[in-house]
């Protein structure tokens, strides 16, 4: 028999070890202190605690007449078609399909790769398939994932899934979404595993991320505000999770609460400032223009949705009722205005070009932005940059008074040239071809700089090296 030689170290030995490795001991002590703080917080705010913030509010709805009044129980009939219909509307408000669909032939089956500073996260299958989806999840599992960021097996979810916002959604609405997802065709598909660097592949570390960046709890209506404002706040802060794209992030990739909605770059695209600041934000837009942009993707003389925002309009906001879109605008009008330092609004730049006349009879040498613009862009946008079709739903937009052209950086304009535009709404099917495979980085830079010089903010330029980096962005 082998003798067990392990024993507890005496106190003086521990003290000597602490003196030899002070940094290691301090680090362990700090980690234990953070964990203790989290445990205390969880005891006070965990799933067993009762919150005053779980009050029902006037919720987003697809059919006002079919929904219960505030605080009323869902009628028995709603457990069927009405509940599913409501869940479909709410799933659209949350734009669930965008992240959980990599292949449009397999909607909601996951597999979309999301690049983060810590590695690649792959979205899961949320169809009711029992083996690869959420078919074996019960209501409690689904509620815990949405409200606490914890999966069925108790694993910590990564905040690429916006549970920091979804935690504000009421139980009734979360279960309506689940009812809708249960009606989807089960798709047997297991997405690839995440590819995260150590130590970020250790899910238990999310305990500490949550400690600093997550507050669990349902939305609390502000009694000083109107029902319309509260509904807008509920949507913007909860299901629509607008901050996930439009708010800068801290070093832990949590949201900077001090700069809410002031804009951020996501995968190469600039999600612009949407605070009421008149120069940096949307303070000079009318309510009707904001509603039009969210419902159609276009606000003539202001902006045209492209990239991720075009997907948001196509998959989500175009399906929201006029009442809910108006509520979103009502709420955004009241968030603190944040100035990005711009002295002129993005949509207030530009004038028609006449440079094309200078090209006549001129021998072109090297890469010339004006020549490339006339050859590749003028057919749709006119050589003057004024577009074709004015404000018609399928118009080719003007490059004058255009947010992407007048922005302080040329990211979105460059990305549009590289990757094109695809936006389908009930009003129009908008398509701009991608030129990334047709033009070199130097040529794309030349067109971009010509467009900003002629029709937009002349201080906004891009280099061929910057184009090369943007070309690789998803």
TrEMBL record:
Chief subcellular location: membrane
InterPro entries (UniProt xref): Cyt_c-like_dom, Cyt_c-like_dom_sf, Cyt_C_IC, Cytochrome_c-type_DH, Membr-bd_ADH_cyt_c
Coiled coil: none
Pfam families noted in UniProt: Cytochrom_C
Keywords from the UniProt entry: Cell membrane, Electron transport, Heme, Iron, Membrane, Metal-binding, Repeat, Signal, Transmembrane, Transmembrane helix, Transport
Top-level lineage group: Bacteria
Sequence ranges assigned to domain Cytochrome c in this UniProt record: 75-185, 227-336, 364-455
Membrane-spanning residues: 21-41
Subcellular location field: Cell membrane
Entry annotated with the keyword Metal-binding: yes
Name of protein: Gluconate 2-dehydrogenase
Species of provenance: Paraburkholderia ginsengiterrae
């Amino acid at each position: 028999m082998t003798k067990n030689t392990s024993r507890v170290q005496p106190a003086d030995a521990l003290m000597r070890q602490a003196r030899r490795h002070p940094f290691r001991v301090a680090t362990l002590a700090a980690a234990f202190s953070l964990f203790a703080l989290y445990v205390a917080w969880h005891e006070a705010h965990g799933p067993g605690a009762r919150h005053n913030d779980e009050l029902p509010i006037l919720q987003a709805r697809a059919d006002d007449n079919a929904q219960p009044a505030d605080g009323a129980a869902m009628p028995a009939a709603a457990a069927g078609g009405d509940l599913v219909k409501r869940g479909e509307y709410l799933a659209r408000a949350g734009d669930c399909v965008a992240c959980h669909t990599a292949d449009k032939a397999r909607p909601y089956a996951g597999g979309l790769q999301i690049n983060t500073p810590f590695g690649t996260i792959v979205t899961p299958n949320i169809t009711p398939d029992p083996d690869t989806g959420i078919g074996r999840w019960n209501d409690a599992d689904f509620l815990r994932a949405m409200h606490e960021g914890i999966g069925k097996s108790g694993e910590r979810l990564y905040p690429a899934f916006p549970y920091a916002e979804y935690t504000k959604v009421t139980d009734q609405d979360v279960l309506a979404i689940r009812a809708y997802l249960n009606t989807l065709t089960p798709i047997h598909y297991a997405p690839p595993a995440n590819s995260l660097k150590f130590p970020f592949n250790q899910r238990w570390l999310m305990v500490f991320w949550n400690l600093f960046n997550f507050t669990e709890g349902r939305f609390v209506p502000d009694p000083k505000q109107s029902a319309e404002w509260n509904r807008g706040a509920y949507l913007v802060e909860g299901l629509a999770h607008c901050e996930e794209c439009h708010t800068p992030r801290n070093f832990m990739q949590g949201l900077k609460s001090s700069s809410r909605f002031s804009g951020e770059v996501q995968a190469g695209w600039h999600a612009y400032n949407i605070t009421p600041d008149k120069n940096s934000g949307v303070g000079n837009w009318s309510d009707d223009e904001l509603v039009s942009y969210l419902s159609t993707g276009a606000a003539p003389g202001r902006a045209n949705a492209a990239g991720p925002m075009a997907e948001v309009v196509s998959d989500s906001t175009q399906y929201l009722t006029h009442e809910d879109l108006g509520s979103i605008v009502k709420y955004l009008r009241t968030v603190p205005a944040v100035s990005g330092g711009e002295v002129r609004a993005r949509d207030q730049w530009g004038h028609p070009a006449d440079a094309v006349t200078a090209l006549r009879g001129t021998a072109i040498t090297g890469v010339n932005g004006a020549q490339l613009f006339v050859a590749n862009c003028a057919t749709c946008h006119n050589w003057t940059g004024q577009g074709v079709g004015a404000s018609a739903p399928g118009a080719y937009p003007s490059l004058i008074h255009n947010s992407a052209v007048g922005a302080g950086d040329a990211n979105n304009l460059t990305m549009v040239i590289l990757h094109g535009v695809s936006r389908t709404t009930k009003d129009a099917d908008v398509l701009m071809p991608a030129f990334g495979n047709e033009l070199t980085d130097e040529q794309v830079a030349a067109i971009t700089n010509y467009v900003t010089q002629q029709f937009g903010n002349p201080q906004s330029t891009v280099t061929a090296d910057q184009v090369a980096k943007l070309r690789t962005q998803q």
